[in-house]
Amino acid sequence: MPRLEDRVAIVTGAGRGIGVAYAKALAAEGAKVCATDIRDTSRTVDIIHQQGGEAIGIEADVTDAAAVARMVAETVAKFGKVDILVNNAALFADLTRGHFMDIASEDWDRVMSINTRGVFECVRAVVPDMRKRGYGKIVNIASGTVFKGSTGLCHYVASKGAVIAMTRVMARELGDDNICVNALAPGLTMSEAVADREEYQKSATPGTRCFKRHEQPEDLTGAVVFLSSAESDFMTGQTMVVDGGSAMH
Q1: What confidence tens digit (pLDDT) does each residue in 6-31 have?
Q2: Domain 8-242 indexed as CATH 3.40.1010.20
Q3: Catalytic annotation present for 200
């Protein structure tokens, strides 16, 4: 039996890159998926339909509380509930690397708004439905950079550190509702947007890993399925690092 049969999942940032891989993997395990992004998610939905799954695509900005609420309401109207939320939407690949002294205040605020408040808005929107049934799985996507103090992207690293902190608080505050809240921390992953940039193709990161190769989106799908499934029902408030052994958390 598929591990996520009869479950309903929302994946944010599912218009491209790792979000597509997460959505595909959850659908392959039987979940009905809402793929949401500020981008068009029709390709993601088509891929899931082609593999025999069920999916819808909804455009939503994770920083817009009203848009997020509508997205969750449409998912519940279509599939009847929400069991799983994968908070993947974030700014990373398009950011310019540089010393923290050179980061503009407006760039800092933009990263924090999407990467941190976006997680907050999406969790707030799904919790009421999860509480009705006394069950839920929330997977917040953090980053292995938090544990390494990676330089050049202070605003990004700080935003992902906040995601881990929020995960711990949310896990305690939602424990009585039987809602699991965990974080997944990938390493530098060769998603579409990242692989297009020469600086990341030539990154020294693979040399810091036990497995000395580039990380691929598919390297993360087993962990996200596990954190979304009944196999992790007694696990909450934790951060799972999947980066080939670079940051040993």
Answers
A1: 999 999 999 999 999 999 999 999 99
A2: no
A3: no
